[in-house]
Write a structure and sequence with these properties.
The protein is of the alpha+beta class and 259 residues long. It has 3 domains: 8-73; 84-127, no CATH class; 142-256, Nucleotidyltransferase, domain 5. Helix content is 36%, strand content 16%. Strands 1, 2, 3, 4, 5, 8 and 9 form a 7-stranded mixed sheet that branches. A two-stranded antiparallel ribbon has the order 6-7. Strand 6 and strand 7 form a beta hairpin. 15% of the residues are buried.
Length: 259
């Protein structure tokens, strides 16, 4: 559509010169002082609206303009919107990222939205969901520990051999201050040793250490705290832990004394 609409009187002149005078587009443009693209655009609109010359008797300029621009007011077809519920559920699986979900979406809908829009709208949708309970943590009281979902390849500097390491993560509940370490296994010796080094990094031991449901920390899980059994880790940490199955969280909890 041209940047500025011409008057319906000028349109009538275009149609008259074209159909009655037999003039070409560029000749009409020179005669009326218009660009040839404007003439082409209005001739196309007249053809799409089944208008020729002479115009139907009694047609007003308002009706003429409505016929010419009726299609331009029609909204364009909407691009397919992703299924945010499905995307949210898939993100819980190991290795599934927003980029992977967007790639699948674009494969199914090549005319769909771009990656930046996809990420922005997903976060907007996610933030608009029902709010969850806010937890207030006392400084130094709880340390949350777990292994990250994906193992990280580590190359031997001499041989180039790749081995995959587990990533231990310990985060203080109040400050979110975090300690991260790579270990070859999730077995009890590595599990307890990473705790020791985390305490040394923080310079103190928290009152409680809260693990997720991993075998090195929890031997049985339940819905109530008294149904959760924690592994006998205390002896291996060297007296830093006092076994406290009765103080367990929904996944498991150790109660620590001072180091």
């Amino acid at each position: 559509m041209p940047a500025k609409r011409i008057s319906m009187r000028t349109l009538k002149e275009i149609l008259c010169l074209k159909h009655e005078g037999g003039m070409g587009v560029r000749a009409i443009a020179r005669c009326l002082g218009l660009s040839h693209r404007t003439v082409i655009d209005y001739l196309r609109r007249a053809r799409d609206a089944a208008l020729s010359w002479p115009l139907p008797e009694g047609i007003t300029e308002e009706v003429l303009e409505e016929k010419l621009f009726a299609k331009s007011a029609t909204p364009k077809a909407q691009r397919p919107v992703p299924n945010w519920v499905y995307s949210h559920q898939e993100r819980k699986r190991k290795g599934v990222t927003l980029e992977l979900l967007w790639t699948e979406y674009k494969e199914a809908h090549p005319d769909g939205y771009q990656y930046s829009w996809f990420c922005e709208r997903y976060r907007t949708w996610n933030n608009a969901r029902d709010l969850v309970m806010h937890l207030d943590h006392v400084p130094g009281e709880m340390l949350f520990v777990d292994y990250a979902g994906q193992r990280v390849p580590v190359a031997d500097p001499d041989t180039g051999e790749l081995r995959k390491a587990h990533i231990f993560v310990a985060t203080l509940g109040c400050s979110n201050y975090t300690y991260v370490e790579a270990t070859w296994t999730q077995q009890l010796p590595d599990w307890t040793a990473t705790h020791r080094r985390a305490f040394e990094f923080f310079g103190a031991a928290p009152r409680y250490v809260v693990p997720d449901n991993l075998k090195a920390a929890v031997v049985c899980a339940g819905q109530r705290p008294d149904q959760v059994g924690s592994n006998p880790t205390g002896a291996r940490i060297g007296g830093a832990i006092s076994k406290g199955g009765g103080n367990a969280s929904s996944a498991g909890m150790y109660r620590y004394a001072k180091v």
